[in-house]
Design goal:
Largest sheet: 15 strands, mixed
Mean pLDDT: 90
Distance between the termini: 76 Å
Strand content: 25-35%
CATH class of one domain: Alpha Beta
Oligomer: single chain
Structural class: alpha+beta
Bound molecules: zinc ion
Number of helices: 12
CATH topology of one domain: TIM Barrel
Low-confidence stretches: none
Helix content: 25-40%
CATH architecture of one domain: Alpha-Beta Barrel
Radius of gyration: 21 Å
């Protein structure tokens, strides 16, 4: 009887501590808002660009997603997004392609996620096939079929869920560096301990679950040593759209304002993605608008105009060459190769230390150029 009582009290005390611990963590979390207004952004010493943010890799009811395109667009518009990119399973998925257009004031774009012999491949920006074409199951063949229709292909979640089996040929436009879908499934204990937070502050809970993408970053640098490749943060959203949409954004940079004509706007976004004129960010941790990384008069320039503590890291051919807590970097090029930038949050952040808050796309100098 006594033991039972002690046991009961211990369990109760442990539960009380857990509630306090979780409550403290939730209460402490605050997303960093961008300190600069749009007008101040226009005055930054960077090439004038128009910035639009959106979420890439979303499943709707046209494959294994839980909501209709219309509902998803409504949720995305509510989250303040400028565009979304659907990637329903198919080869391609004609129903999602036909669902593209303006919806709730939002640019709804679509590609398709193909199941190939090597893994999952997301095809984007291709013209709708005239006949009822099916892309090949052979990844190397499919990537050429997609290119023949003016599109490009991205390797989806190469190190999780359906893993990618790497071949010698790499004709893909890029790879996903982080994807949201597998975060919840990979660490059941961590997921379970933050599960109540998912109901109270879903953005916070998801941020706590992001793994440092070491393996994907290493592979990316290895690929970059041989040919151009882009890096993407991917939502791979099937459900919980409202919780996932604020987390991973692609910030697309256009040199002209976005067109009001759907076909033109679609081209603008897909062309910018294909060129690598975008960066990925964990926007639920902090508003990343205003980041820039470019080449100017023989120097690498980066600007991270944020008032909260952050650190810019510059990587040359897979090796870190510069690290600063300043808001700006001007770095004379130290030789030919591939340069890219990462930005980390450095105080009061739910992100694990190895999780980049911002990931730039590479700048190629002297060797390969697209
Ligand atoms: Zn997939
Ligand atoms: Zn997917």
């Amino acid at each position: 009887m006594r033991i039972k009582k002690i046991l009961g009290r211990t369990v109760l005390a442990a539960f009380g501590l857990y509630v306090l611990w979780l409550g403290w963590q939730i209460a402490r979390f605050k997303r960093y808002e961008s300190p600069i207004s749009t007008t101040a952004q226009a005055a930054l010493p960077v090439p004038p660009l128009y910035e639009f943010s959106g979420v890439y890799h979303i499943h709707s009811r046209y494959s294994d997603g839980w909501k209709t395109v219309d509902k998803i667009a409504e949720t995305a518009a509510g989250a303040g997004l400028d565009f979304i990119i659907l990637a329903d399973h198919g080869k391609p998925n004609y129903a999602t392609l036909d669902a593209q257009g303006w919806n709730h004031g939002l640019l709804v774009l679509a590609g398709s996620e193909l199941s190939t012999n090597r893994g999952h491949l997301v095809a984007l920006g291709f013209d709708r096939p005239k006949d009822s074409t099916a892309f090949s199951r052979d990844a190397e063949v499919a990537v050429r079929e997609i290119a023949a229709l003016g599109g490009f292909a991205i390797i989806a979640h190469p190190y999780s869920k359906v893993r990618w089996s790497w071949g010698d040929l790499f004709e893909y436009a890029g790879i996903e560096i982080i994807d949201a879908d597998t975060m919840l499934k990979r660490h059941p204990v961590r997921t379970l301990s933050y599960l109540p937070a998912l109901l109270i502050k879903p953005g916070f809970a998801l941020l706590k679950m992001i793994d440092p993408p070491e393996q994907a970053l290493r592979k990316w640098d290895q690929l970059l040593s041989r040919r151009p490749a882009l890096g993407f943060f991917s939502a791979d959203a099937h459900l919980l759209y409202g919780a996932i949409f604020p987390v991973f954004h692609l910030h697309v940079l256009l040199d002209k304002p976005r067109s009001a004509d759907f076909e033109t706007a679609r081209r603008q976004v897909f062309d910018a993605l294909r060129r690598g004129s975008f960066y990925s960010a964990v926007d639920a941790a902090a508003d990343a608008r205003g980041f820039r990384f470019w080449l100017e008069a023989g120097s690498l320039r980066a600007i991270a105009p944020f008032s909260f503590a952050h650190e810019i890291v510059i990587i040359h051919d897979g090796k870190m060459i510069h690290q600063t807590r300043d808001n700006e970097v001007t770095l004379p090029l130290s030789g030919p190769g591939v340069y890219r930038a990462e930005v980390y949050l450095r105080e009061r952040t739910p992100l694990a230390p190895g999780v980049p808050w911002i990931l730039s796309n590479p700048i190629y100098f002297g060797r390969e150029n697209r």
